[in-house]
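Section 5.1 Outputs to date
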Amino acid sequence: MKIVVSRLDEFPPGERRIVQAGRRSIGVFRVGDRFYAINNHCPHMGGPLCLGRTKPWVSSAGPGEYAMAEEEALVACPWHGWEYDLETGQSFLGPGEPRARTYTVSVEPRVEEGTVAADQISAPEPGAKGGRRPGPYVTETYPVHVEDAYVVVETSPHPAAKPGTVGGAS
């Protein structure tokens, strides 16, 4: 199932949207030009995960030294602060805890038909194609252009991750 979240131009970087699809609640985050979708149910204790703070990855080369990534990539559940990777749903606080489900997000164009011009009328191709011979009839074709773009979440199941690996979607 695909869920249309928003027009692209109405979803600025740094924002999030929570969408309902039946019983599912999904948080969609725009970080720069990337989109992430994650289940709005914290695997730890069932809190509203997508209402939590987002933050960047922090790394350390040694005591007293740290560096923060430029973009936010983690969401922290507002109930207990458990953090989950927006891309994979993986938590690093509870060993063996299940990850939060993530979904594929795409930006898809809205397609509209235009008008036909005389030079855009198809002509039959000479010779057979796919075992068929072209007939004498020609149909009109129409140019297609993208007018608007929409952010769309795909809720089809991901292929199962192999044990011991971190899987996810972008």
